[in-house]
Amino acid sequence: LKTVFSKLYKGLTKTRTGLVEGITRTIGKRTRFDQDTLDELEELLILSDVGVETAEHLIEELETRSQKKEIQTTEDVLNLLKSHLVAVFDDVDTGPSNKDTNGTPRVISVVGVNGTGKTTTIGKLAHRFQQEGSSVILAAADTFRAAAIDQLEIWASRAGVELVRHIQGSDPAAVAFDALKAAKSRSKDILIIDTAGRLHTKSNLMQELTKIHRILEREHPGAPHEVLLVIDATTGQNGLIQARQFARDAGVTGIVLTKLDGTAKGGIVFSIAKELNLPVRYVGVGEQLDDLQPFSPKEFVEALLS
Ligand SMILES: Nc1nc2c(ncn2[C@@H]2O[C@H](COP(=O)(O)OP(=O)(O)OP(=O)(O)O)[C@@H](O)[C@H]2O)c(=O)[nH]1
Ligand SMILES: [Mg+2]
């Protein structure tokens, strides 16, 4: 548990430094929260990408509670932030649980704009599931580039799992079909499907994803059991715009937020959950096999503000 926590803690260093040091500096020795202090705190929150609405709400609460002298120190402020940020997730749909899988394999489709970290995340997920005792097989359904297939193959061997691949340019749905067949005949617990991430503005990407999902459902009712949308945290509000279309058109059931280690705007996780009303399943905090953590609002907020 300690290493799990410290990976997340380390990954969130940039965001935490910006927020905690900023708040500490702003409040300093002041015990009264005048308008300037509140404005500065609001700006810090907005800069961390928690979202304007959340930031405004927090500041209002801070103002009321400080007038009643309930909040006086930096620590009081951090505690208020913690409880509010954890509560952002109270209203978010938690989605289907693992228990809802109707027979094996459990099928996970991974979608998102190119470069967000889909293939890397699949490697990490495969590793994690294997470690947890599940057998895993991967489908290289991003047939757009030969390099994409090879890249997934490298991750498959790192994680020690099998891979189903066709040649570049072949039909992604056919790869998914074959991989499902292989998963069934080899009694795999989990099938993870890598998909292409060409620009969302090309409408055929959504059609392609729909086709893959339709064939999976036809061959294995209930599949895909999870459609994970991978979002690159460093793209900030832009990532949110892309995410909306995928969420609407690709049947997304959960979010993976990657590259949290590379940004000071890790607060984006709160904006995403709120805006998309989708559960955040995992967060990526580096490029290694074990740099993927299941998302827990409480742990995340602790790592962010402690
Ligand atoms: N620092 C950091 N880098 C990451 C993380 N996840 C992915 N990356 C890097 O992001 C880059 C893109 O990752 P890919 O997994 O290839 O992304 P993709 O979505 O599969 O991209 P396409 O196949 O082109 O659509 C790679 O250099 C990864 O190492 C993360 O959590 N942290
Ligand atoms: Mg890829």
The biggest beta sheet reads:
8 strands, mixed
Can you list the ligands bound to this structure? guanosine-5'-triphosphate, magnesium ion
Q: How much is the average pLDDT?
A: 90
- Which geometry do the CA atoms define? elongated
- Percent helix, as a range, is 40-55%
Strand order of the largest sheet: 3-2-4-1-5-6-7-8
Report the C-alpha radius of gyration, rounded. 21 Å
Strands, count? 8
Q: What pattern of helices and strands is seen along the backbone?
A: HHHHHEHEHEHEHEHEHEEH
Distance between the ends: 17 Å
Q: How many helices in DSSP terms?
A: 12
The low-pLDDT segments are none
**Strand content range:** 5-15%
Strand-pairing-aware structural class = alpha/beta
Can you walk through the features of this model?
By secondary structure, this protein is an alpha/beta fold. The protein contains twelve helices and eight strands. It has an eight-stranded mixed β-sheet with strand order 3-2-4-1-5-6-7-8, sandwiched between helices. β7 and β8 form a beta hairpin. The mean pLDDT is 90.
